[in-house]
Amino acid sequence: MRTLSFLVAFTFLISSQLYSQVVQQTKKLGISFDLVGPIKTVFDKDYLNLEGQINFGSLRNFYPTVEYGMLKYNKKTTDNLKNNYNYASNGNYLRLGFDYNTFKKNLQGENNLVLFGLRYGMATLSHNADNIIIRDTIWGTTPQMKFSQNDMKANWIEIVGGIKVELIKNLTLGWTMRLDFLINTNGMAGTKPFYIPGYGRGNKNLTIWYTYTIGYNVNFTKMGFKK
Amino acid sequence: MVNVRELLIAILQMSFIIFISSCDDINTCGELYSDRKLKIAFAQKSKSLIIDSIPSGLSFYSLLNGDTSYIFYDDTVSARLTFPLSQLSDTSEFVLKINKLTDTLLFIASRKIELISSDCGFNTKFTLQKLYYTNNTTIDTMILIESDVNKDVDKNFKLVLKQKGTIPDTINPDAIGKNVLVFD
């Protein structure tokens, strides 16, 4: 947790230092929310993933970015022919990094981006399950099993590619594809979590997934940040 | 001339369609479970060579609970067979029978349960630790190819049968041996 706090503080410190130096180049603070989690909840009521993103405007086409989210997953089955189980997991995640805009053909007043970026992701989570029965017609069905694991942690590196379009003034819609490389886990020696929040499936060392975001650009030079 | 902004919006729309269409979990339970079976391919010793083969008259059974036997394969012809490991015990024993002659394979594996998908539920993840096997009659040797049972590979072991003409009609008590393979 100390590492996490340090990284957050460090990012904000660096960002504020940079902005105080190059405020004439910076114009907008982007706030956006991921739609993939809520849409997935429509299809799967047991899954809830909410994520918000802040990017701190352009610094020579670099956009320092902070993403924070939470994931809850609760699943109960009682009539599954294969297995029965109750499973619950809960966790939060934070990603720190930047996007780089490669798109240079904006018309006057437009703010469209073609992005490539990098993130460092970290998550804390817990999960538990009970009433687990694995049916086996040959060797025999298992007795009921249960487990509970808390304070699990994971860290990963994420490569980001995507686009963000300003649909109408300051309202943006964005899509990114992300490639995540798990670099470290802690406390997962037992049963691996089904989902690592912000990363994806817990049994994979490499995941690919998408975000689809809606956002709003706040012109913070008008809000008195200018020095 | 193509408006770049409209092009980006079109890409957004396409990506959204791709996202919606990828919401379904395409894995079926059968596929996920079959990955977790032990896969054994067969070969035959021929002088100093080991040649892949498709032996006939293969039977595999296991003694469940000490007395009840379960027949996995009965007088079959195959280049490769799959075997489920026990979810109840760290040991899974299989008896190979060819022409009334038997040899035994005893696999020792550690087990962890894992939620493999919301629809399929939990399954056991096996990590092989040891293999004990006899080579009294038909088995010459066992060759490890891949010790991770959960990987989707073609084979985990190659079971090498003895050279034709050297298989005894009966077990020689002096020749009874037990071999062990240990995996990291």
Furnish the topology, listing elements before pairings.
The complex is a heterodimer of chains A (227) and B (184).
Chain A: H1 2-22, E1 28-34, H2 36-43, E2 47-55, E3 62-77, E4 83-101, E5 113-134, E6 145-168, E7 171-186, E8 195-196, E9 200-201, E10 206-219
Antiparallel strand pairs in A: 1-2, 1-10, 2-3, 3-4, 4-5, 5-6, 6-7, 7-10, 8-9
Chain B: H1 4-21, H2 29-34, E1 38-46, E2 49-52, E3 58-64, E4 68-76, E5 80-83, E6 91-98, E7 101-117, E8 121-134, E9 139-144, E10 157-161, E11 178-182
Parallel strand pairs in B: 1-10
Antiparallel strand pairs in B: 1-2, 1-5, 3-4, 3-6, 6-7, 7-8, 8-11, 9-10
Keywords:
heterodimer; A: 227 residues; mainly beta; eight-stranded antiparallel barrel; two-stranded antiparallel sheet; 2 helices; B: 184 residues; six-stranded antiparallel β-sheet; five-stranded mixed β-sheet; 11 strands; 13% helix
Characterize the structure shown.
- The complex is a heterodimer of chains A (227) and B (184).
- Chain A has helices at residues 2-22, 36-43; strands at residues 28-34, 47-55, 62-77, 83-101, 113-134, 145-168, 171-186, 195-196, 200-201, 206-219.
- Chain A has 227 residues and is mainly beta.
- The model of chain A is unreliable at 10-26 (pLDDT under 50).
- Chain B has 184 residues and is mainly beta.
- In chain B, 13% of the residues lie in helices and 48% in strands.
- Chain B has helices spanning 4-21, 29-34; strands spanning 38-46, 49-52, 58-64, 68-76, 80-83, 91-98, 101-117, 121-134, 139-144, 157-161, 178-182.
- The model of chain B has no long low-confidence stretch (mean pLDDT 80).
- Chain A binds chain B through residues 36, 39-40, 43-44, 46, 75, 77, 80, 82-85, 87, 105, 107, 110, 112, 114, 129, 132, 134, 136, 138-140, 142, 145, 147, 163, 165, 167, 173-175, 177, 190-192, 194, 203, 210, 212, and chain B through 4-5, 8-9, 11-12, 15-16, 18-20, 23, 29, 64, 70, 84-89, 92, 112-116, 118-124.
